[in-house]
Amino acid sequence: MAHLIYVANTSLDGYTEDKDGKFNWTEPSDEVFEFVTEIIRTTRTHLYGRRMYKTMMVWETDPNLAAESPLQSEFAEIWQHANKIVYSRTLRKVSTRKTQLEQTFDPQAIRRLKAASEDDILIGGPELASHALRAGLIDEIHLFLIPILLGGSKPALPDNVRMELELLVERRFVNGTVYLRYRTKQERAT
């Protein structure tokens, strides 16, 4: 059975974007980008909300991005080969291959997807991840803590969710980013 993995860049005070909705402060060093690429390589299906999908789709729709460096080219190739499921009530069509559009997030459908998949599944975006966390679907949380304080905006993790976590891996990068990989210790419904 596949694990559902939530991967997020977050400020030290826990936000995924600043008060203006920007996240340019998360631009990774080559060392961090290579590490993220290795995580993404292990997943074959990505779950996104509308906004995260629109952010990520440039890895297929903008060939100049992949041409900037071998690292970016490799990431683009991995991203393009993954199956993507986008959850949105407002998006009417998708602009990338291997992408399906769903209007609502169905926890039972995700449970079936996890049971049927051999490869891990990535979930991106704090809003979609909050639904999955509340439904007890997320098996691992991978956080990249960026050394910046934003003072408020969109939180990486939802309020009103209590869950014990087990630290599996920690790593410090030269640019001050810290990676934390946690396994959730939730009871599984049978």
Can you summarize this structure?
The protein has 190 residues and is of the alpha/beta class.
Please provide a written account of the structure.
The chain is α/β, with parallel strands linked by helices and 190 residues long. The protein has a domain at 28-155: 3-Layer(aba) Sandwich (Dihydrofolate Reductase, subunit A). It is 31% helix and 27% strand. It has helices at 30-41, 50-56, 58-61, 63-67, 70-81, 107-116, 126-134, and strands at 4-11, 43-49, 83-87, 99-102, 120-124, 140-146, 165-172, 178-184. An 8-stranded mixed β-sheet has the order 4-3-2-5-1-6-8-7, with helices on both faces. A hairpin with a 5-residue loop joins strand 7 (165-172) and strand 8 (178-184). Helix 1 runs parallel beside helix 5 (70-81). The longest helix is centred in the N-terminal third of the chain and has 12 residues, at 30-41. It is globular, with a radius of gyration of 16 Å. It starts with a strand and ends in a 6-residue tail after the last strand.
Keywords, separated by commas or semicolons:
190 residues, alpha/beta, Dihydrofolate Reductase, subunit A, eight-stranded mixed β-sheet, 31% helix, globular
Question: What is the topological layout?
Answer:
Elements: E1 4-11, H1 30-41, E2 43-49, H2 50-56, H3 58-61, H4 63-67, H5 70-81, E3 83-87, E4 99-102, H6 107-116, E5 120-124, H7 126-134, E6 140-146, E7 165-172, E8 178-184
Helix pairs in contact: 1-5
Tell me the major beta sheet: 8 strands, mixed
Q: Shape from CA axes? A: globular
CATH superfamily of the domain at 28-155, please? Dihydrofolate Reductase, subunit A
Q: Briefly, what CATH class of the domain at 28-155?
A: Alpha Beta
Radius of gyration: 16 Å
**Helicity level:** 25-40%
SS summary, helix count: 7
As a percent range, the share of strand residues is: 25-35%
